[in-house]
Structures are given as C-alpha cells and as structure tokens.
Amino acid sequence: METVKNYRVKTKSVTAMRTFIGQPIHEIRDYMIGCKNIALGLGGLHQGFNESIEGTGGARDLTPGDYIVMSEDRHAVFMSPAEFEKKYEEQVDSTELYYVITKYGFLAKDAEMMLKDERIRSVLLAPLNEEKKVSPVVTVNQSFSGKDDIKKIAEVLSELLSEECIRKHAY
After folding, report:
1. How many angstroms separate the CA atoms of 64 and 81, rounded?
2. Element (H, E) at 130
3. Cβ within 8 Å of residue 27, ≥6 positions away
4. What value does the CA radius of gyration of the chain take, rounded to a whole number of Å?
5. Are 64 and 82 in contact (CB under 8 A)?
6. Over the stretch 90-118, which tens digit does the pLDDT of each residue have?
7. 146: which of 82, 124, 127, 163 lies 20 to 30 Å off by Cα?
8. Is the pTM of this model over 0.85?
9. Distances from the Cα of 23 to the Cαs of 29, 53, 65, in angstroms?
10. What's the Cα-to-Cα distance from 148 to each of 100, 109, 130, 145, rounded to whole Å?
C-alpha cells in the first residue's frame, strides 16, 4: 500500500533549567521573566532555594531538583527529574556536531552521543577550542587530524578515565 506511510511526532526545542538546593532565587526569577502562564509565589524568599515554592496558574509546586521547562512561546512547566528525563534529551550544538562529523568522519548519531559525554566532548573539541583561542575544559597536548586518530582519542580518553579512577580511590 503506497498510501500508508510512517510518520513521527514533530519535535520542538525547549530550554530547561534544573534547580538545586541553595540556588540563588534571582536565577530562578530571571529565568521565569516573561513566562506567560506561571507566576512564582516567592513570598519572603530572597536568598537560597531550600524549600518548595508555590506554583500558580495550576502549576504544581517547584521543589529543589525539579526542572523548569520553557517553550519557545514562554509557557513553563515544572517537572521532576524522572518526568523530564523520560520526555527530553539534551540537544547537541549543531556547530559542534558538524565539526566532529567532518573532522573525524563519525556517523551523526555516534558523534551526537559522544558530544553528550563531557569527558569525550572536551577531547573531541580540543582542536576546535584551540582554533578559537578558547581554553578547553581538558587540556590536550596532542593534535588530531582525522579518522586515523580515533585510536589516539581512545588512548587520551582511557588515560583521563584512569586518572579519574585513581583520584576517586585515593580518598
């Protein structure tokens, strides 16, 4: 049947902020500026976010650790970490994704997965950060020049992970 086709739900990008205990209230307030459907009842809170904040407009209370998810049209929703992680995944920066695909020849899905891991991301983007004269999160003293250097990347990552394990077990 040529008239039967498979479709998927269109996705929209959202921004999100994960809250935490002791978070400065002004960060939450500033993020919520322009929100069209929720006003936070901050009451006397002026310092750190240490207890639930009452939500208005039918929103549930915001508890430390929850996410504030904001749509492009500035409608917000509060979600627990479990709800958020079930529905959303991090969106990789398209410029970084393009760089990794063209530099190393990875498949898009593999490059995206690696960019989501901060340890791998910093190694893959080290040459790009050097080009931009930006300090990378991890200093890498080797330069990578393409597909043949995947072994070198694996060695650097292995070394970083070994150092991290040693530090964890030293205490």
Report:
1. 10
2. helix 126-131
3. 17
4. 21
5. no
6. 888 889 999 999 999 999 999 998 998 88
7. 163
8. no
9. 11, 12, 10
10. 14, 20, 20, 7
